[in-house]
User: Which sequence fits this backbone?
C-alpha cells in the first residue's frame, strides 16, 4: 500500500511539472577584483509547459529562458558541497521555483567539480561566502531579472561545505584549528586536526544581513565547536543532519553540536538511515554508474521518498520565514 501511494504521488508530481515547468536560465557573473567569474543556474516560476533539457548527465524538466511569472518574489541562493555543482540539488530548486521562488545556484569557482586545479584548496572555505555576496550583489543590482525580486525576502540553502557557507553568512565564526579532512588511510574516517589548517585565514568572513532565513543540510560543522561559534546566528534556521554523515568532514557528532548550540527556535531534523549524499538529487543511470558513492543509499533508505518530504519541508520553511509583507 505504501509503495502504491509513493508511485501515485510521483505520478501526480510528474503531471504537475509537465503542466507548469520551472524556468531555467544559465549565465555567468563576470570576474572582478573580488574573485573569478561565477557560473550560475537560475530557476524561476514559469507559465509554460516543461520541456526535457539535457545538461551533462541530467535531464531537467524546465523551460529555457522562460519569462518570470510574478512580482515581489522571494530569492533563494543554493550552495553546493565539496567538489559539487549547481545541478546537485536541481529537484529542490525546481520544487522551490514551482512554489513561487526564484532560485540561483552557483558553482563556487574554488570548489566545484569542473575546477580540478583548485577544488581541494582550503582557500575555498574563505572564498565561498564572498562568492555568495557577489552573487547577491549581481542579482539585486545588475541582473536582467532583478525587477521581480523582493530584496526583503532572501533565503539560503546549503549542503555540506555549502552548509558551512550558510552558517558563516548567518554570522557563525569558524575556528579553523578544529577543521577535519578525510584521511588517506584505508577505511576512511576523518583525520585529526592538522596544525597547517590554521593557515586558512578567517578574516574577511562576514555575515550577510540580506539573507533572512537559512536551510542548512549536513554541514561541515567541526569548525563550529562551541556555543560562541554560533552565538551571533539569530536568523531562522532549518538544520538537517544525516545519521551516518560523511568521512569528508560532515560528521554526525559535529552537526549535533551545532544543533545543540543554535537558538531554541531553530528547526532540527536528523534523518534516520540517511548517508551524507542522501541530500543530493536522484542520480540518472550514467551518473550512478560513474559515482556509486554519491548515488547509493542504504538498503532501507528511499532517496526519492525522502526528497519528496524534504523538499516539501524546505518550501514550507521558506514560506513561513520569507512572507510577502504586501499580501493582505
Assistant:
Amino acid at each position: 500500500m505504501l509503495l502504491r501511494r509513493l508511485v501515485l504521488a510521483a505520478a501526480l508530481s510528474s503531471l504537475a511539472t509537465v503542466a507548469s515547468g520551472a524556468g531555467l536560465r544559465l549565465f555567468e557573473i563576470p570576474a572582478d577584483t573580488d574573485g573569478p567569474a561565477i557560473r550560475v543556474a537560475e530557476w524561476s516560476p514559469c507559465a509554460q509547459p516543461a520541456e526535457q533539457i539535457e545538461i551533462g548527465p541530467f535531464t531537467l524538466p524546465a523551460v529555457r529562458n522562460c519569462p518570470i511569472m510574478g512580482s515581489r518574489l522571494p530569492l533563494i541562493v543554493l550552495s553546493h558541497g565539496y567538489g559539487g555543482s549547481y545541478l546537485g540539488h536541481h529537484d529542490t530548486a525546481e520544487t522551490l521555483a514551482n512554489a513561487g521562488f526564484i532560485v540561483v545556484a552557483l558553482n563556487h569557482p574554488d570548489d566545484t567539480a569542473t575546477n580540478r586545479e583548485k577544488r581541494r584548496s582550503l582557500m575555498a572555505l574563505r572564498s565561498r561566502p564572498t562568492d555568495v555576496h557577489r552573487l547577491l550583489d549581481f542579482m539585486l543590482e545588475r541582473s536582467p531579472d532583478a525587477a521581480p525580486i523582493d530584496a526583503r525576502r532572501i533565503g539560503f540553502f546549503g549542503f555540506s561545505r555549502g552548509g558551512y557557507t550558510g552558517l558563516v553568512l548567518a554570522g557563525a565564526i569558524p575556528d579553523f584549528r578544529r577543521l577535519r579532512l578525510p584521511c588517506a588511510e584505508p577505511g576512511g574516517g576523518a583525520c585529526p586536526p592538522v596544525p597547517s589548517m590554521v593557515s586558512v585565514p578567517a578574516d574577511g568572513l562576514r555575515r550577510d544581513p540580506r539573507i533572512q532565513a537559512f536551510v542548512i543540510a549536513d554541514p561541515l560543522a567541526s569548525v563550529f565547536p562551541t556555543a560562541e561559534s554560533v552565538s551571533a546566528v539569530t536568523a531562522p534556521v532549518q538544520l538537517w543532519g544525516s545519521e551516518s554523515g560523511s568521512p569528508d568532514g560532515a560528521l554526525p557528532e559535529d552537526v549535533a553540536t551545532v544543533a545543540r548550540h543554535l537558538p531554541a527556535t531553530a528547526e532540527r531534523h536528523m534523518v534516520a538511515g540517511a548517508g551524507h549524499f542522501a541530500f543530493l538529487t536522484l542520480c540518472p543511470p550514467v551518473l550512478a554508474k560513474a559515482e556509486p558513492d554519491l548515488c547509493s543509499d542504504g538498503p532501507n533508505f528511499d532517496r526519492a521518498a525522502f526528497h519528496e518530504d524534504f523538499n516539501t519541508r524546505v518550501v514550507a520553511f521558506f514560506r513561513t520565514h520569507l512572507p510577502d509583507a504586501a499580501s493582505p
Q: What stands out?
A: The CA atoms of residues 84 and 252 lie 20 Å apart.
